[in-house]
Amino acid sequence: MVRVSIEYKDHIAFVTLTRGDKMNALDSDMVKAIIAAGQEVAASDARAVVLSGEGKSFCAGLDLMSFAQMGQVDPEEWLMTRSHHDANEMQEVAMVWRRVPVPVIAAIQGAAYGGGLQLALGADIRIAASDAKLSIMEMKWGIVPDMGGMVLLPRLLRSDVLRRLTYTAEVFGAEQAQAWGLVTELADDPLARATELAEEIALKSPSGIRAAKHLIERAEAEGRAAVLLAESAEQVHLIGKPHQMEVIAAQMGGRKPVFK
After folding, report:
1. How far is Cα 258 from Cα 205, in angstroms, rounded to an integer?
2. Alpha-carbon dihedral 88, 89, 94, 95, rounded to 10 degrees
3. What does pTM read for this prediction?
4. Residue 167: strand, helix, or coil
5. What is the dihedral of CA 120, 13, 15, 44, to 10 degrees?
6. How many domains does the structure of the chain reveal?
7. CA distance 144 to 132
8. What's the rounded Cα separation, in Å, for the pair 63 and 245?
9. Collapsing DSSP states into helix, strand and coil, what is residue 144?
10. Buried (b) or exposed (e) across 6-42, using 16+ Cβ within 10 A?
11. Distance of CA 25 to the CA centre of its chain
């Protein structure tokens, strides 16, 4: 069965998890399909990505069959292999969206639990319905977040909040998630709002947006001297180039820019 669909429209890639009858729970096929979708979008000329799940929930995390299969494989061989750059296959479910060179916006409804929450954390921006429910749920099953969560969560949460949510596996609402920093904003229709935001981004300089995402990734991971140098290097590649000149011409002419 198809696990993920991709549609391109007006320079936006719409990536949708299509296992709605199972709350888009992650099985082996879904894991592979999500990674493949990220790789396809990364190689496309899309200027923004909207990541969503069909049905009642964004993604409820690993399905029960996947948990059952854990005991039948050697975890060291499965988890310690760096199959995707610096990540294993499970980690790449989230990290592939950080490798996509353009902004990714997750639209969250229903449940975003465990691996589903970590998938959403791979996005640049998260728009959630006010009644959405989230959880760092791994401790419920006696394990720790291992799909990129411990790279992404500390950038968003205070240490004491991260520890509480990890230790307790509690379910919390979208309003609290926004207050803590896990959710960017709330919306009655997260998909519509994510699309609106993607459309706004798609009107900006494509090279400028890609440079900005690359620079932010470096700023979050590297030291002061390296980031200052990276700022300058990115700017050198933008100033006076066609996209930047078109932005200036459009501003001066009171029109929308047209990028080639």
Report:
1. 9
2. 50
3. 0.92
4. helix
5. -100
6. 2
7. 22
8. 50
9. coil
10. beeeebbbbbbbbbeebbbbbbeebbebbbebbeebb
11. 16
Tokens representing residue 168 in the block: 């307790």
Amino acid, single-letter form, for residue 9: K
Has residue 141 got a pLDDT over 90?
no
Task: Report CA torsion sign: 146, 61, 53, 44.
Answer: positive
pLDDT computed for residue 143 by the predictor: 85
Q: Are 137 and 186 in the same domain?
A: yes
Give the Å distances, CA to CA, from 36 to 93, 139, 189, 232.
9, 28, 27, 33
- Residue 227 structural domain: 206-253
* CA within 13 Å, CB half, 219: 10
Of the pLDDT bands very low, low, confident and very high (cuts 50, 70, 90), residue 66 is low
Is 176 inside any structural domain?
yes
